[in-house]
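A sample copied in:

***
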Amino acid sequence: MDVVQAIEDGRATVDWVLIKSEYAGYKLRISVMKDALKVDNVRQPATAIELQRVADRLGAMLLTPKVADLIWLQAGRLGTQFNPVINHRYPGDAKSTIVAMMAADHVSKLVDEKVRSVEGAGKLVASVGKYWVLTNELLKGKYGSAQACNYGWHSHGAPYRAVTLGLHVWQPIGLAHNNLHVDPSQVIRLMHRTAFLTCPGCKEEIVDLRLVASDATYAKLINHEGPLKVLRQPGVPDPKIVA
């Protein structure tokens, strides 16, 4: 499916909500998608390339692992956290089927059930899936300029440590896939590039999230590694530069 075209055609559901980050006296308000993007009421999976193209269309950028953690934490404060859909046992089957082997519309319906269970419709919710993310680890992968990184599936009972102390995920920072990989667990969730920064003793100002991410003073507001060196998905030219 061409998700960018679906957005152009008005078939996509994209809702934003502000979340907060604080570090060393600095405060940042970030607009993130309340839920994964839906087309015709289905959470559509995407390759990392497709996700970047959607981000370009919406004036957004891929999440960082830290922002994915912030989404989980702030959904927790709202009471709209739930365990991710990792597998599912169909009636009559002896074994569970993993998400990667399931149809996207079925996975989306299972996530809808989770959303309803926490009365999360129209609110910030988590965990709706895994995300293609931006991290400096993208510079180290075996796929070079075609490298992708996934992260997420937050859960209190997950076995792996998140980048934020005390949180856990089923999918830690992963470099197993290139930018063409797709399965129903890899949903479309982004953060808008327009954000709101407050420095100590100053008034809030509108900033470009790319500048925040790459700045030595502000970067830890959205990136656990410090300044982010990879500001868009590798292998996808910036349309503004190409033009």
